[in-house]
Amino acid sequence: MAVDVHSVPVLHITQTALAVVSNRSIETKVVSGAEVEAETETKTETETEIETETQLPGSAIMNMRAYQLEMLDQSLQRNVIVAMDTGSGKTQVAVLRIKAELEKSSYGKLIWFLAPTVSLCEQQYDVIRLQNPSVSIKVLSGDVTDTWSQAPWDAILSGTRIVVSTYQILLDALLHGFVAIEGLALIVIDEAHNCTGNSPVNQIMTKFYHPAKNANKLVPAILGLSASPIIRSQISDVEKLEVTLDAKCVSPTRHREELLKHVSKPELLYREFKPVDDPEHTALMESLHLVYQNIDIKTDPTIRKLAQDTSEQGRMKLRKAILEHDTYTQQQMKSFWIRSKVVLDQLGPWAVDDYISKVIAQALQNAKKSKSAQDPWVDEDKRYLAEVLQKVLPCKIPSGDPQSRGVSEKVTILIKELLTAGDNVVGIIFVKDRATVAVLADLLTKFPAVLQKYRIGTMVGMSSVSGMRKNIYELSHESNFAPLQDFRSGKINLLLATSVLEEGIDVPACNLVVCFEKPDNVKSFIQRRGRARMKQSKLIIIQEWSMRGRTEWEALEMAMKQEYEKEREEISRLTQIESEEPGSLVFEVPTTGARLDLDNAKAYLEHFCRVVSRSEYVDCRPDYVFHRTSEEENSPITATVHLPPLLAPELRQWDSGSGWQSQKNAAKDAAFHAYKGLYKAGLVNENLLPIRNPGSEEPEQVVVETPYFNAWRAVAEAWERNGDKWMHTLRFFDENSKLMDEYHIVLPVHIPQPRPIKVYPEWDVEWRIEISAGVPISHDDAMRLPDHTSTLLAMHFGHRWEVEDRSLVIKVIKPDENITRDRIGAIPFHPAIHPMDMPYLVRDLYNSSSPCDYTGLLPSKPPIEEVQNPFKAYDEAPENVPYLIVKRVTKRADYLHRIAEKPTQGVSDPKPYKWVLPMPWAAVDSIQKRYSYFARMIPSVIHELEVMMTAVQLHEAILEPVGITDMQLVIEAISARHAIEPVNYERLEFLGDSILKFCTIVQISAQQLNWPEGFLSFAKDLAVSNSNLGQACIKGGVSKYILTKIFTGQKWRPPYIDGVLAEEQHPQKPLPSKMLADVIESLIGASYVTDGLSKALKCISLFLTGENKRRMEWYEELEGRRILFDNVAVNVELPPTLRPLEELLGYSFQKKALLIEAVTHASYTPDARSQSLERLEILGDAVLDYIIVTKVFHCKPSMPHHKLHLLKTAMVNGDFLGFVTLKHSLQTTETIINEEGDVEEREASLPLWKFMRHTVPAIGIEQMAISKRYENLRGDLMDAFTKGSNYPWALLARLQPRKFYADLFEAIIGAVWVDSGTFDACEAVLRQFSVMDFLERILKDDVHILHPKEELGLLSGSETVTYHHDAVDTVDGGREHRCTVKVGDCVAAFVEGALNKEEAKTKAAEQVVKMMKECKKGQE
Question: pTM of the full predicted structure?
Fold first, then answer.
């Protein structure tokens, strides 16, 4: 059984799938989504590029217009025949009707799309498939109905929802009982004006539809589609068609005057030639003819097969075949010869030799591959034909200049017309014969002048002969639609085609149409003329020199001119009516005086729609539908304006308040009421502007003067009072946690949770100082305690600056020790009583009593040449006295930070003594030097206590309502990175940023249930902007507590009580607004760590309260979600097409309307009840952010901020989300029937993206292109994510899924959160899509996730990295992206072959990074 049943492969769809699109006068734009680069970039492109494999014509991106929705509404109410002009998008009406039927009809019902030709079936299959990828669609074609049986029909239709076929296929299926009319839900009939007389559709309706309807049986809905010729038909013909199809002929009441203004009629020109009678045959033709005449028919396989049948009937067939030469080979050779003569007549000698050579070469090649499982004689016929063809003179495809061997006069005329046409030609040449198309295309490419001006392609209809017995003389055309796709995209600008392009198939408007032969009839003339729709276009007819037939065309031309004149008169009449109608509607805002009237309403509404929409593939303009108030011709007109689906359903449709004489004024009225309604809904402000007003944000890095908080002032003031004091114990532990010493400190304020202090006495040594909880003591007891602070400071710092005997803000006590200043340098040095290992410091009395360690003794003064660091006046120092060899005590005063670099041993100094000291100048402490170890760290301890007290003061003064219990979190939250504290706020800021973003989106979404995503996003951005958070930080009083000052021990001086009290109370310190904002987010993060979202919301509500009328009352933790959930419609059932989606997600929705909204793209206009996915997408983005951020934040061991940021970027970037959307799918099976007639089952998949509802053909095209790229990259991507050591940035850049993939995924996550109210359910969906698995694998194996461009910037240091990118055309008409990377002035890498700019730059950066790492490794 040789039924041609196929589902077009992805590659084929990608090349061919541009749908019938709507009115081409509508300009649209694809957002490129190119990122803003930090690197210097040299752009060599002269225009903006759409970074996509498939070039999309503007019309393909256009959304549904209101007049198409009007036709859809008519079709949903009754059976209709939609009559619309060519290029106005009637097929898209059918797609919408099919979508509507899929969502309401039962699963077993079929939708059958009928088209008159196989080529049109192929195109319409692509149109439907692109916008319904989740349902099973089959194309049935082929003249093989005699071999069909019930089993293949049952197999192929099992699970199928849509069938596309020619008229005859459905008729035969009904006649044989394979399909019942009751099993069809909808029949769509393309080119319905053909359904007259004894046509197959007429028979379907009269033999099956009408009898079933008359018997009160279920019958399918009928939708007919017809181009404009039906409008010009006789009324009686239209009525007959309406009766036949049981449908009403309808046409849109759209802006008729606007349509008329865009009508452009071509100039009709005739070019005549004189045919050559009996042209001379070429040698190759003569050889072909001779071989044909000399075929021995007795050796023909057909004759030999018939001779085996000895019956009477067999003998009669044999006799007939011999007498009539009726065999496969004879017929093929006869037709081949006839076509050769036609090619000679039409094109000339060069062309006929080219034709014969190609036919023979192709036939011989096909004979080698031929293999028929059904009939071995088929192969025998082909082999025999090949043997015959091999007898033709040795031939090869001619080369060189065709004119040297001769071309026909027709070709000469054609070439002249092509070369004299103007610039920017977009043309079609209609040719009658399939073979002539191929040869003429070859011929034209041999003329350099033509090739320089034109990029040529061919398009022919599919042969009606089944695959195994195709005619050799027709020349095969492997891809029927790829050239058409290239023509649409502009890759080619001259298309040679048969009559297949006359009707139905969508073709861009042209400015040159050439009929290589005279059209067969008036219908063909009209349809070909309709292709020349551009301004100043030409229709050229090349015909034989004769006056015959001219009158027919001129009469038709005159009739059409009269019609155009009537249209212009109508335009003039409408213009006059519009100018005479008064505009009396006015609305004025009381508070501002802003005015809305009929003159500005449409402009205001269009501006609002532009502001509201940021989505690619979405035409956001308002659209108008007009109605007559009665059946009378001149009755008043009303208008309905439709707004984009991004708005809530109740805000999308508005009617005019009155009837008008013109559509223009009715539209103004509708726009007036729409804009007034938007104002009342709160989407327009008091100045009648959209509330989203870009440009109102303040600059990110505003530097703000903010008061400085001095923690010691409160301490100093407390010392002046008689209240209780607090005593803490400080314990010193070495690197082995061995207790070294113990001290007490007394403060007049309480530090509830003193944190351990890490100090670094050596480069690789870490000690720990633990501070106990404070014990309250009375003021008097505190005053009676000794104060060792000044003495300890003087031990280490007294030689550098004066240590005064004044009270400090802190009292340090060494228990049970008598430490006084008079014991510093109290004893003269004597070697008899002061050995080298003594536990005391030596003082250099000559140098301010600087402390030293005694390491040796010299009998006399060494020569200066032996001393590395001789003191001043060394020559005057005593000569004949012993000299001490000493080591000066370190000058370090900062022990909170490690030494920047490991001390190097260096080359040994030849001078043996580093420092020496005359013994008379030396004195020894009577205080053990171990106390100096603590003394040198007192500045560090005092600084740490200041930090702790700052946090305590902040908590007590401001944060107490929040209830952060861990003071260390507060310290972390207020510590700026450049303060170089042990911790900084960056980790908490990373967490708080995500928490704030989530809470803000939930809050605003719940408060503003009718706001579109653009307004929500703007409000969120404003709420969390650095400017707003910075102001909140200042107004909340937090700014003065931020720790920004770096502790530098060299500049540190003791904070004496009287000195602190004498300081200015409010010194200023400049802080950037980003730092202020970061601290607020850090405090939110600290609150979340303390006790989850509820605590974080307390912190948010403390600082982000809004002002005056905009005062924000933050919801409780789950209140916002409850509001969102309650706002969702109840009792909404999932359409059959979406029911598998819950299994794919692994989640069953309580409210199915949420899932429907989550998969509805903004281009999807038919469903007036559902909003598009954008609101859920912005919420899902925040939920996804929240889950990933909280997960990585709590990983152990804790990761630094930059690693957290890299992880988040790796897991939530759009390319990665697009990848997981492509990766995860439901695995199913589908049944097909191959060319051999065997029933096969093959695996099929339903990924998430196939369920997205949209009505833009360009989205379907992009989906197919990305699906193809994914199939090519899937293995490499999975290897990278499951076992690679590096994150696959370059592979994802090559995949480059469009933004709507990530939007869809995020909208699903948002819908699950609203429905479930839990993050666990959302995380389960993320795990279902492997997001959590990939994250855990990245963490477990420490996958390198730094982006190559960022890594290159780091490795390059101070050198500037420059990316030079360009894109060039490839041989196959595509685009190849290249990139050169320069580091400094050196070219470091060059890559080519990339699919887009980002891939090229990423690959180039990868190369340089790899090279630099290998070079560094080699150096090490």
Answer: 0.80
